[in-house]
Amino acid sequence: MVVDWEQETGLLMTSGDVRVIRIWDTDREMKVQDIPTGADSCVTSLSCDSQRSLIVAGLGDGSVRVFDRRMGPSECRVMTYREHGAWVVKAHLQKDTDGNVISVSVNGDVRFFEPRTPDSINVLQTVKGLTALDIHPQANLFACGSMNQFIAVYNANGDVISNIKYYDGFMGQRIGAISCLAFHPYWPHLAVGSNDYYMSIYSAEKRLR
Fold first, then answer.
1. Could you tell me the sign of the dihedral formed by the alpha carbons of 145, 146, 147, 150, in that order?
2. How far apart are CA 74 and CA 67, in angstroms?
3. What SMART domains is this protein classified in (predicted)?
4. What value does the CA radius of gyration of the chain take, rounded to a whole number of Å?
């Protein structure tokens, strides 16, 4: 199951190994809308923007689909991108008025789309075997986690800012395969979960001792 939360409206977007995106009104505790994905594969990622009433879904067949929930079920899919050749790990819709769609597949290709155009406007190649990605909402940073036991932080130009392979300490062990990543909404902090049952928080700020 994948979800995305819209704080401004109290709506919860949900999907998964189904053929619809279901929208719930959490105040009234009821379903308000079903949006057909038009695909035979599962939904792997969701991202929404209340200002534009858009929902972006990444799918297991490599496609990224943009929906306008103000339109009817047969018309609401307004764009489909098919440039990824593998499972979409993350599809993210920037919250700015002119915000882009950013997506990445397990092959490590990060693609930037302008929602009104049919082709990507930029492509950055990271490493293969990606299992998680998150984009900082304020800074021009994104972080990738890999099944090959490392985290890489990039800027918007695709330059590597940091590589994390070991836990802190003189004899710090190798980190586990990354299962999830999340940036703090304002601060340069990154929370990481891994398959060795550790949860870690990394910061750009120096730690006081």
1. negative
2. 11
3. WD40
4. 18
